[in-house]
Amino acid sequence: MAHHTRWTMSQVTELFNKPFLDLLFEAQQTHRQHFDPRQVQVSTLLSIKTGACPEDCKYCPQSARYKTGLESERLMEVEQVLESARQAKNAGSTRFCMGAAWKNPNDRDMPYLEQMVKGVKEMGLEACMTLGTLNDSQAQRLAGAGLDYYNHNLDTSPEFYGNVITTRTYQERLDTLDKVRDAGIKVCSGGIVGLGETVKDRAGLLLQLANLPTPPESVPINMLVKVKGTPMADNDDVDAFDFIRTIAIARIMMPTSHVRLSAGREQMNEQTQAMCFMAGANSIFYGCKLLTTPNPEEDKDLQLFRKLGINPQQTAVLEGDNAQQQRLEQALMNPDTEEYYNAAAL
User: Fold this and answer.
1) Any catalytic annotation for residue 60?
2) What is the pTM of this model?
């Protein structure tokens, strides 16, 4: 993957200016060359340490700087985390993501984090973490525990970044991605639409991601969830077509990456979500609260999957251990049976 396409700003701008239906068609063609268009990877995200974060990200209710009514909590016990992972697996998730509201992990917490990763892996799930900035030693330790993915978003373009965060530089984010990659962990990195950025900033974000030495294996595209008490609580709404366009361009620019329809799905109707899948999104968060913002109820997701004929993707580590996958798929295909409603209630 070392010799991938290097994109230019003029090429990306051209995509943003392309007629919408032509863009969607190109994105769907690209998607079908690399993926089964009816398969969506399903992840569950758990906040393992909530609130009291020293960073000043203007969109985030976890920052200690804003009064959002969010109760701060200490790092969860390992067994509590693993119980949530079991529930996620039973509900059909193939990847379990653990997020901590830290600027960076403290070395005293590393043994607990390593135990969490090992426990999740023993269940046959992929493990992902997002813990803030990492140093080389921490990245190596997480890799040694078996961590599959590390999430560290770039959020926006380098030019707009200073309007969003001042407590961590853009370069620090890029450095963390390098350390994760060097440790042999797969990279999950994306951004947020709706921060007050321009179309050029959206292009700049995608350019940064696609032109990394190796593009991220997973690219979450978030729609801003406006939380009362944060400086971005009154930002303008994102036009649905602008959001779908961003998904489509991410798919075209990073053809082999999983593009994740991430935060903000709660405020999208079914038609918008369907067009995001059409545009090349092939990963979602399912169940559990998306850190501190609502995620659509699981039964709504199952119903939408059924309407669109989408199947949850099975991951390689689940070979020979696909009972929950089959339960979920059977329930999706038989909406009038008791099993469907049981699966929807998980």
Assistant:
1) yes
2) 0.82
